[in-house]
Amino acid sequence: xxxxxxxxxxxxxxxxxxxxxxxxxxxxxxxxxxxxxxxxxxxxxxxxxxxxxxxxxxxxxxxxxxxxxxxxxxxxxxxxxxxxxxxxxxxxxxxxx
Length: 97
Known about the structure:
single chain, alpha+beta, five-stranded antiparallel β-sheet, 4 helices
């Protein structure tokens, strides 16, 4: 069953790039996500923080300036600042849209 769940998550992320939703992790935590890609068995996605600070449609002028600064940062920097998350597919219980 676990392999089937991983495949479902993998397919979901691969076929729904730039898609937002909610992940339920096996530890019970939930996380908002904006899919980026699946790589080496990991889901790589914008976190709720990243979605709010970079991609929210109704940003103020000040927020837009911050968003532009964040968009210029490397993926590594965005992971370190919790704007992008990397989670093993095996830790994802359910993908909600």
